[in-house]
Amino acid sequence: MKSLKFVLAVDDERANNLLIQILLHEEIGLQCEFQSATTVGRALQLLDNLHTSQQAFPDLILLDVNMPGKGGFDFLELYQEKGFDDQYDCSVIMFSSSISPQITEHAQQYSFVVALEEKSLDSDDLQQVIRKFFRLD
Asked: Which H helix or E strand runs over 17?
């Protein structure tokens, strides 16, 4: 199981990104790099910059399904088109306030999406989900 060194949160709500950062660093106690983006375009730009400059790539992307404009599934499609799924060992956990069978089926089409969770997670829930895929040290 790999350790978690770098997390990218992609959510149009700045408050949610800040909450995730607080949960990871203060509640769970992770000492990982954290970056966030409020749009799909900004998230992909950040990943492009990391790729081009050969800097560390996220181990985990926490992705909101429903965002104005381009949403979570648009992100996944563009991420895959850029070949990031083949070049990097990065897992995606998607979040949605309402999970339908259609959303679940759509998420399962992407091998790098490891979980789809209800958006109202607390620190224990987030830690439990992350522990399924990463060593927290």
From this structure: helix 14-22
